[in-house]
């Protein structure tokens, strides 16, 4: 077993775990903040893209990991906006920003480690 393969599996596991935590935090925050119908709608809209990516992330599909890096952007923007504009939500919003950034870094690590080797022909 190569160390590169082990690192790739670790990056994949970290991405999956952090994305799950990101979704759970997003749902928990909106459940605490809004009534049931609004929280359910926000949860569905916030988690559905991750659920659509989940099978590809589980398989290790590089295109899905690239999409995951792009999918963290709305969470970063939303969290930063709430950190600046909503003092009551700073704890949830700050955690959301940190988790979104951690998902981004973990997905980039997986993409870096899963690149096909480009050995020069001899």
Architecture overview:
With 122 residues, the chain is an all-alpha fold. The protein has one domain (3-113). The chain contains 4 helices and no strands. It has helices at 3-33, 36-59, 62-85, 90-113. Helix 1 packs antiparallel against helix 4 and helix 3 (62-85) packs antiparallel against helix 4. The longest helix is centred in the first third of the chain and has 31 residues, at 3-33.
Instruction: Summarize the amount of helix as a percent range.
Output: over 70%
Mean pLDDT: 90
**Uncertain spans:** none
Major sheet description: none
Q: Helix and strand succession?
A: HHHH
Number of strands: 0
When the domains are counted, the total is: 1
N-to-C terminal Cα separation, in Å? 26 Å
Backbone shape: elongated
Features of this protein?
mainly alpha; single chain; 122 residues; elongated
Brief description of this entry?
By secondary structure, this protein is mainly alpha-helical. It contains four helices and no strands.
Q: What's the arrangement of secondary structure elements?
A:
Blueprint: H1 3-33, H2 36-59, H3 62-85, H4 90-113
Helix pairs in contact: 1-2, 1-4, 2-3, 3-4
């Amino acid at each position: 077993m190569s160390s590169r393969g082990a690192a790739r599996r670790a990056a994949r596991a970290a991405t999956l775990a952090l994305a799950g935590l990101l979704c759970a935090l997003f749902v928990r925050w909106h459940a605490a903040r809004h009534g049931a119908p609004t929280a359910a709608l926000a949860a569905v809209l916030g988690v559905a893209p991750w659920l659509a990516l989940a099978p590809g992330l589980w398989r290790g599909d590089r295109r899905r990991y690239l999409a995951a890096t792009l999918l963290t952007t709305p969470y970063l923007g939303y969290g930063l906006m709430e950190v600046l504009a909503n003092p009551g939500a700073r704890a949830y919003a700050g955690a959301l920003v940190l988790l979104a950034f951690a998902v981004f870094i973990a997905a980039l690590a997986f993409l870096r480690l899963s690149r096909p080797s480009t050995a020069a022909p001899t």
